Structure of DUF63 family protein:
Amino acid sequence: MQVTERIDAERAWTATALAGVAALVLGSLAFSDAVYRGFVWHYFWGPVYADANNAVCAVHSGGSVELLYNQVACQQAVTSGAVVAEPGYTLVSEVGYMVVLLFGLIGVLQLLRRLDVGRDRGLFFALVPFMLFGGALRVVEDANDAVPEGVTQAIAYPWNTLIISPIIYFTVFFVTLGSLLVTVWLRREGYVETYMWPMAAVGSAAFLLTFGYLVSLGLTADYVEFYPQVLLSVVLIATALAGGIYLGVDRFRPEINAGTGLIGLVVLWGHAIDGVANVIAADWLGALGVDAVYSPKHPANAFIISTAETILPTSLLTALGSSWPFLLVKLVVALAVVWIFDREIFEESPRYALLLLTAIVAVGLGPGTRDMIRATFGI
């Protein structure tokens, strides 16, 4: 890409981003009920606000916002016609985040071009520890919510919003971006030969420190447990599934792996972690000696489980549970992604291919790591 074309693309992206922000701000000011209260607050900020305050829901009645701490009161608020936001995702919010993600990827692509990095596959592997870090960091907020009454939270509102979905994605992004900028600068100044290993080290250190903090809570805090068997089960089963599929494909249909190489294994592993963590958390914690119940937070996951409970025979549900179809879907989709990203895609646009694959792994490995670690600590 010529320099002038790159600059034009950067300016177009920046102008579009500013226009989008301006439209939301002006729309919220001019049509506060419809745009802000009925859309921005209802689907995006309201769920974060309720989650940050460990409430069942937040109610926006027009002039004020009230936090409610029982489901009956929340249902009554819905019946009364108030705008009610509950922690978690909705179809509207997930579509919105998807649009932001895709648009953000274009911006990151422009940044990588300006920095003249991202053509080497090493960047992909350097980013994997940051995905693990993001999942572990989200569990810090789960532990924060588990603090019993009378005990001071380690991270209070509003700072805890920085580690609540989806804002945590921006938090982790800026940590990752800062690491990239620093390590690229170190390489250009001659302090290191490559930016990828130092960057991977930063991400690994961030993950290990965060996980270490959670382990310390598990060993010292009464409100946090520690079930290493959950962590081991998820990692071992996911690794066996991903490795088995990858090796089987490499043996019988090697052209599927030809484009992605070992990146394909990481794609499979990241989504296997997500799928296995959900299956164990939903159906098999009792078998592992964990007295806890977790429900799916994402509409897609909930839909698959609900459909399975409707169409599968009772005998099969009793034997295997109702969440295993989610794991199956995750593995099939991950393998399809590996198949789609052939050599031609990498030859035509290596940066964009690596960026898309990074995002695809992140949306599986990040939430999967969170679910796995949360169940490991019983929170």
